[in-house]
Design goal:
Structural class: alpha/beta
Strand content: 5-15%
Largest sheet: 5 strands, parallel
Distance between the termini: 50 Å
Order of helices and strands: HHEHEHHHEHEHEHHHHHEHHEEHH
Number of domains: 3
Strand order of the largest sheet: 2-3-4-1-5
CATH superfamily of the largest domain: P-loop containing nucleotide triphosphate hydrolases
CATH topology of the largest domain: Rossmann fold
Oligomer: single chain
Number of strands: 8
CATH architecture of the largest domain: 3-Layer(aba) Sandwich
Number of helices: 17
Length: about 425
Amino acid sequence: MATAPEGGKMRSLSDMLAESKVFSNVEVLSPHFTPKRLLYREREINSIERALAPSLKGERGRNLFIYGKTGTGKTSCVKYVIDEIKNIPNVRAKISFINCRIYNSRFRVLNKIISDHMPTYAKRGFGAVDLYEKLTSWIEEDNKILVAVLDEVDVVKDLDDLIYTLTRINSDIRAGGVTIIGISNKVSFKEELDPRSLSTLYETELVFAPYYATELYAILKDRANAAFRKDIIDDEIIHFVAALAAKEGGDARLSLKILTKAGEIADENDMSKVSMKEAQEAAKVAENEIVYDVVSTLPEHQKLVLYSVSLLTQSGGSYKKLTDGVDTYLFSGEVYNRYKSLTEGMKKEPKSERWYRKYLSELEMQGLIASFESGKGIRGHTKLIKLLYPSNKMCDVLEKEIFGNNESSLEKEVPVA
C-alpha cells in the first residue's frame, strides 16, 4: 500500500525499498551506535578504564556509578570501553551489560547474568536464591571477577535487594568477586537506597557534563560525514541542530534524532538535499519524541508531580497574578497539594514534602521544569515553578503513561487545588 508523508507525494512500497538518495549509512546516527572514537569524552573514558583495570587483572575493584543527563554519552562510553576489553587477551573479568529498563528486577538481572555466561542453566526456571547460589559457585570455581554493568539502574523495582545481593556475593565467597558499574540519569537515586545497601557499595562516582554547542557541532559533523551522501547536508544545518540541542541541555541524542528525522523527511519527499525547512520540522517532531522518552523513564511519583504541574499550568494556577500572559508560575505549595490530591484519589500514599522537593530537583535536572525563589511583592519565601513544555502535550503524554490509553476519570473525582 502506498503512503504519503505530510505535504508530500504518495510513495509506493518499491520506492520505500529503493536505495536512499540522502543516507549512505543511517545507522551511524543511531544513539545505540558506538563510533570508533568518542569526541570530548577522553577523560571520562579514562576514568572508566581506571575503575575497571583491577577487575581485568582478576582483582576486586571499586564499584563505579556514572551520572549525567540524557544524551551526555554515559552508555556510549561504557560500551566503548567494553569493546576495547574484548580485544585484550587473557582478561580475567567476565562482563554482563544489562539494560535495566528491560531487566527491571533483581530476579531478571540475575537471570540475565546467568544467561550471558551459563545459558543452559538460566532456562531451568530456578528462583532468585538458586540463581544466587549458582552465580557464587561459578565465580568461585576459578576466581572470576564478574563486572555487572547496570544501565538505567535506578528503574529497577527492587533496587535495594539487587544492590545488596550483588555486593553480598563478595562477602560469601573466598576468591573472585563482583564489580558493579551503575549508570543513571538521577544523581540522587542512591538516596533512596536502604542504609544496609549503601554501606556495602564502596563506590566511586563519575559525572558527565552536558555538551557545549561547539562540541555538539563537532560530534554531529563527524557522524554526518559518515551517515549522509556527499553534499546532502550543509554546515549551516549542523550548526543549527547543535545550537538547538545545546539550548535544550546539551543532549547529543536529541541532536542525532533531529538530523535523522530531517534526512528522513527529505527522503520521503524525494529531495536531493536537506534544507533548513526540513531541519526545523524535524526539530519539532524530535523534541516531542525526546520528551516522551524522558517522561517514560520517570518513577511513578515524579510523573504525578509533573502531571500536577501540567494540570495547574493548564488552569492558570490558583494565583492568577503570577501568570504574565505568556508563562504561568506556580507556587510550590499548590503543586504539592495538587499532587497529594491526585495520589489520594488513586488510593496511593503521597510522599513527604522532603521527597517532593527531591522530585522537583530531578524534574528540573531533566529539563522538564524550571524553579525560582520568589522575589519582592510575594508574601513570605517560596519556590515558584514553571513548566518548560506545552501543558496540553505534557498532560497527554502523562495521562497515557499514568492511566494507560483510556482517558482518565480521576480528574472528575479530584477537586482542583
